[in-house]
Amino acid sequence: MSELSIARAERHIKLKISQGRFGEEKDYDLWSKQINFYRDHLDIFIEEMFHPIKLKNKQKVIARAFGRSSDIKIVDSRGAGKSWLIALCCIAMAILYPGTLVAVCSGTAQQATIVLQKVKALSVNPNILREIDQASSRSPVTLSKDKGMCKFKNGSEIESYSVTTMRGNRAKIIVVDESPEVNQGDLEAVVSPVRNFKRSVYYNYGIPDYESKIVNISSACEKSNHFYGEFIRVMRGMKDGDRDYFAAATDFTASARAGVTDMKFFEAERKRLPKSKFDMEYGSLFLGAESNSVFPYDLTESCRT
Q1: Which residues, in sequence order, are bridge partners of residue 104?
Q2: How many whole angstroms separate alpha carbon 66 and alpha carbon 264?
Q3: Over 70: is that where the pLDDT of 164 sits?
């Protein structure tokens, strides 16, 4: 679609919003172009439809990749707001693709609910709340210590699981929080069936479905961890120009520059933590020897200066 067509579609939709004329005209071709544009530019959809939310530059890059890529690895420092951003992207995908099932899983059920906690916090936005189905619940997000669920009026759902309880379930998008802490065998058993999952629009109407997504978010880890190999695999695919792959690693300075977290917090953490731990958790550096090395990282870590 040409930039001129996109501009016209945007102007038309904004005019209808300003005039309160949603749904009066059935210009399906225009709506189709607009929705396809938003699906390919998730960051623009978030800022225009979830006003007054504004994304920082690095958040815009990640949000756009979330909409376009199918194998996504995000490494960011603690305190960078990655759970908030991923929750926002999950909401956007759930709205733009009816019937999308989003599963947020982690090594523990409690850890997996963190993204759902962010979804609940974001539901105060009236444009998000309007899309949520509250018919069976007093709260827009059903949330306990070990479980979270959010249902949308278009049939989409966002639900949290521990990676073991995810077995046997299906989802179009899997978000793995704190990926290094998840057992690799359990993760592979969950991920493999998901790659072949299709929404009902494919079976009922023959409409091609978008490719299932696997999104891993974490701070950095030791190189002997399975997540390091996965990050390198996706990074190489991205380097080769394959749009299905996206990998990004940003450290604490990016969060401080963007105003997400004050630099004083990071400086206090630098003083509190051993250098190697700070470098991994806040510097987004993968440290240590790779698996099968002669000298394991744990053996020499205490001698490092």
Answers
A1: 160, 175
A2: 30
A3: yes
Instruction: Work out the number of other CB atoms within 10 angstroms of the CB of residue 251.
Output: 19
Q: Which CATH architecture has domain 54-303?
A: 3-Layer(aba) Sandwich (3.40)
Contact status, residue 179 vs residue 227, Cβ threshold 8 Å? yes
pLDDT band at 278 (very low <50, low <70, confident <90, very high): very high
User: What whole-number distance in Å separates Cα of residue 265 and Cα of residue 11?
Assistant: 43
Helix, strand, coil share (%) of the chain residues, nearest 5? 50, 15, 35
Secondary structure string (H, E, C) spanning 18-41: HHCCCCCCCCHHHHHHHHHHHHHC
pLDDT in tens, 228-241: 999 999 999 999 99
Q: What DSSP character marks residue 303?
A: G
Distances (CA, A) of 168 to 105, 163, 165: 13, 11, 8
Q: What mean pLDDT, rounded, does the chain reach?
A: 86
Instruction: Report whether pLDDT(125) > 90.
Output: yes
**Region 230-259 average pLDDT:** 94
List C-alpha distances in Å: 93 to 42, 144, 169: 8, 24, 19
